[in-house]
Amino acid sequence: MDTSLSKLRESIRDARRQLSDQDRFQAKFPPLPEPHQNLPRITWAHLQRQLIDLSTCSPDEVVAMLVPLRAAQDGKPAELLLRELLIVISILLDEAPRPDGEGGSIMT
C-alpha cells in the first residue's frame, strides 16, 4: 500500500477519534448556563513557568508534557482543554516534594 495513502487514512482515523472524543465530552459536560465568571487570563508561558517551579520533573519533561496540549488546543472546547491540563498537572505534581523545599507553596 502506498505510504502516503496509509498516512492519509491514519490521519482520518485520528481526526474521527478526536471528534468522537469531543462529542462524548460535550455530551457528558454540556455548556453551563450564562452568566458565569471567567478565570483570569494566563499564558502558556505562565503555566509552564509555574509547573517547572512546582514539579520535581525536569524543565524538559514539563515542556514535553505541555507540547501536545498546545498543539491540539485549537478546535477543542475550553473545558476539555482544561480537563487535559488538569490531568497533566496532576501527573507533574504527583511526586515527592522537592528536596530544596521550593515549590508546592503559594508563599514561595
3D architecture notes:
The chain is an all-alpha fold. It folds into 2 domains: 1-30; 38-108. 61% of the residues lie in helices and 0% in strands. The chain is flat and about 45 Å long. It starts with a helix and ends in a 15-residue tail after the last helix.
Oligomer status:
single chain
Total strands: the figure is: 0
Beta-strand content: under 5%
Specify the structural class: mainly alpha
**Average pLDDT over all residues:** 85
How far apart, in Å, are the first and last alpha carbons?
57 Å
Describe the main β-sheet briefly. none
Gyration radius, rounded: 18 Å
Count of helical regions: 4
Low-confidence stretches: 104-108
Reading the helices and strands in chain order gives HHHH
Which overall shape is indicated by the principal axes computed on the Cα atoms?
flat
Work out the count of structural domains. 2
Helix content: 55-70%
Short description:
The protein has 108 residues and is mainly alpha-helical. The protein contains four helices and no strands.
List keywords for this structure.
single chain; mainly alpha; 4 helices; 61% helix; 2 domains; 108 residues
Layout of strands and helices, then pairs:
Layout: H1 3-28, H2 44-54, H3 59-71, H4 78-93
